[in-house]
Design brief:
By secondary structure, the protein is an all-alpha fold. The chain is about 70% helix and about 0% strand. Belongs to the sigma-70 factor family. ECF subfamily.
């Protein structure tokens, strides 16, 4: 897509100004193609990075990125500016599509050969499936922290919430994931319990 003069938001965690979500959304609803270009310039690399991390495949990441932005263009009302940032929404959609693509590929392989998936692949798929099941506020916070490389302070700013609320969402999300991945809640001080405080 053609370059634009606006500031973009890189994946490296530096802070520059993204296009304003509400204005972009309004223009997308009215069919302004330049709005899609601006959204892609600002967030395309993030969506691709999330999809690549989930799938481990550059080709799948490119396919998922294409599908996510086609969805933004054809169904702009799927994104609601009042419920979170466009960056978080696109990141989550990229994550969901990549998980679905990995499952599809595994199902196709399963019909061709009856071999069990590698334990590491199985664990990774389970982790991303659990992420997709988190409540939206917690999922947004976790995506910004773990996939976009934001600190809890940056998460708070981008979601428009207090730092304590951002910390609470992250801790809650990590606690749920730890419980899903390890079974019964881990005792305080155990490695699993300590993992809840890390991303």
């Amino acid at each position: 897509m053609a370059p634009h003069t606006h500031e973009v938001v890189p994946v490296d965690g530096t802070t520059r100004y993204p296009p304003r979500d509400q204005e972009l959304h309004r223009r997308l609803v009215y069919g302004d193609e330049t709005a899609l270009g601006e959204a892609y310039d600002a967030y395309g690399a993030l969506v691709r990075a999330v999809a690549r991390r989930v799938s481990g495949s550059a080709a799948v990441a490119d396919e998922v990125t294409h599908r996510v932005f086609i969805e933004l263009w054809t169904r702009p009302f799927a994104f609601a500016p009042g419920r979170g940032s466009l960056r978080a929404w696109l990141s989550i959609r990229g994550h969901q599509d990549a998980v679905a693509r990995v499952r599809e590929a595994r199902a196709e392989c399963g019909t061709a050969r009856e071999t069990a998936p590698e334990p590491a692949e199985e664990a990774r798929t389970a982790l991303h499936a659990f992420l997709a099941e988190l409540p939206l506020p917690e999922r947004e916070a976790l995506h910004l922290a773990c996939f976009a490389g934001r600190t809890y302070r940056q998460v708070a700013v981008e979601l428009g919430i207090a730092e304590t609320a951002a910390t609470a969402r992250l801790r809650s999300a990590l606690s749920v994931l730890a419980g899903r991945l390890t079974g019964p809640p881990a005792a305080p001080g155990s490695p699993a319990g300590e993992a809840r405080d890390e991303c």
